[in-house]
């Protein structure tokens, strides 16, 4: 009696790089269709992705905030008063906030590395050599060194 064999899934078939590239090229040409009108050629099919929008807005916001910070930090007060900006934070904060941020980042790195060192076993511990889920040889002495049996511990 003959068994019916199902063909393997296309994702499980091993292909050469050339076959893969040709399949990708065929998929691209099938997906691209000529625009039907002038208005559809300028619009995206699904619109911009939310991550792209958030990235764009975030980058623009960062540039504007940096420009405002630099103008506030380096422009003399009389120039700000002549433009009509009379209420602004003290110049002390122009140096204090970045200094606090740099110290906080440096301390967080030191604390993170110290916690990792505390969690690491000492070099003389067997935990640095053996692990609970690793394969260990049960018998490797004398004549039986060539017959190594493995089993899982855990």
Protein traits:
154 residues, 2 strands, disordered C terminus
Rounded mean pLDDT is: 75
Please count the helical segments: 5
Rg from Cα: 32 Å
Estimated share of beta-strand residues: under 5%
Q: Helicity, in percent?
A: 40-55%
Widest sheet, order of strands: 1-2
The run of helices and strands is HHHHHEE
Structural class: mainly alpha
Give an overview in words:
By secondary structure, this protein is mostly helical. Among the domains are: 50-87; 89-121. It has helices at residues 17-31, 38-42, 50-74, 77-83, 92-119, and strands spanning 135-137, 150-152. The protein has a two-stranded antiparallel ribbon with strand order 1-2. The two termini are 45 Å apart.
What's the short version?
The protein is mostly helical. It has helices spanning 17-31, 38-42, 50-74, 77-83, 92-119; strands at 135-137, 150-152.
Please specify the SSE layout and strand pairing.
Blueprint: H1 17-31, H2 38-42, H3 50-74, H4 77-83, H5 92-119, E1 135-137, E2 150-152
Antiparallel strand pairs: 1-2
């Amino acid at each position: 009696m003959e068994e019916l064999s199902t063909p393997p899934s296309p994702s499980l078939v091993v292909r050469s790089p050339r076959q893969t590239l040709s399949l990708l090229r065929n998929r691209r040409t099938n997906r691209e269709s000529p625009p039907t009108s002038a208005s559809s050629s300028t619009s995206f099919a699904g619109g911009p992705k939310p991550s792209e929008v958030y990235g764009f807005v975030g980058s623009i916001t960062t540039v504007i905030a940096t420009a405002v910070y630099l103008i506030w930090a380096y422009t003399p007060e009389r120039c700000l008063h002549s433009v009509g900006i009379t209420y602004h934070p003290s110049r002390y904060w122009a140096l204090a906030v970045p200094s606090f941020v740099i110290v906080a980042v440096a301390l967080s790195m030191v604390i993170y590395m110290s916690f990792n060192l505390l969690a690491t076993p000492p070099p003389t511990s067997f935990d640095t050599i053996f692990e609970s889920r690793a394969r260990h040889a049960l018998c490797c002495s004398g004549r039986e060194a060539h017959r190594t049996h493995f089993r899982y511990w855990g």
